[in-house]
Amino acid sequence: MTLFRRLLGDALRAERMKRGLTLREVSAEARVSLGYISEIERGQKEASSELLASLCNALDVALSDLLRSVSDAALAEERALLGVPAITPAPSAVVVSAA
Amino acid sequence: MTLFRRLLGDALRAERMKRGLTLREVSAEARVSLGYISEIERGQKEASSELLASLCNALDVALSDLLRSVSDAALAEERALLGVPAITPAPSAVVVSAA
Q1: Is some CB atom of chain A closer than 8 A to the CB atom of B58?
Q2: Interchain CB contacts (distance < 8 Å): A and B
Q3: What is the pTM of this model?
Q4: What b-and-e string marks burial along B16-40, b requiring 16 or more CB atoms within 10 Å of the CB?
């Protein structure tokens, strides 16, 4: 089963890595415990909507961009489950920064 | 603040309406209480990832498609907050007017 929290965790970790941030830095910025963020990144805990907004803010990523990444990952998994070859992502997956 | 559960609730309701399904029908199909689904649609409760998968299944919508709708709605809201004029929406986008 494709679980949202696992794909979300992967996307959050990817955004953090892209910015070269440590869990500790994101934890301080988002005011969320390091252990909790780590569990979210590993898809072990659900993030509340408020926490998700806070993490997006700390990572300086728009919620829309993060969710698009998750949608793309879900699509890739759905296609893999159906045995459909991967396709090139839609051009609309362009990053829009809300900063 | 743009809250994921509110946008998700809107998207779930839109999918249910599109299919002409009642809350009762989705409740029976997804094996989730009617009251709980109603609260999720109104953005009052967070849906666990397992419940979200179950709702997608009951609504016969791919998680990727649902999340893309939510991403589009989040983008529209982010742009409205920034005072950016609405752009031509992607085919799956929900139109949000900048109030």
Answers
A1: no
A2: 75
A3: 0.85
A4: beeeebeeeebbeebebeeeebbbb
